[in-house]
Amino acid sequence: MIKCIESFAGISLGPGTLYGALSRLEERKLITALPADDRRCPYRITPAGAETLRRTLPTRAVAKTGLRRLAQA
């Protein structure tokens, strides 16, 4: 996920940035944790999370990438 963000946003995230963001998204019920798969800890976007993205992405610089990926979800 960090490498993906770096590739389209052109920024490097510091240590702990991703885990902090995941915690906030889960607290807000925008994502939900799925059962762990070996070392992977996958998440799924919730309906509330998808609606939030649809509403806010058009105002963001990464909107094109986010909306394209949301359409594939």
From TrEMBL:
Which protein is depicted? Transcription regulator PadR N-terminal domain-containing protein
Q: Which InterPro entries match?
A: Tscrpt_reg_PadR_N, WH-like_DNA-bd_sf, WH_DNA-bd_sf
Output the SUPFAM superfamilies linked to this UniProt entry: Winged helix' DNA-binding domain (SSF46785)
| Superkingdom as given in the UniProt entry | Bacteria
Q: Which Pfam families match?
A: PadR
- Annotated Transcription regulator PadR N-terminal domain residues: 3-54
Mind telling me which residue stretches traverse the membrane in this protein?
Answer: none
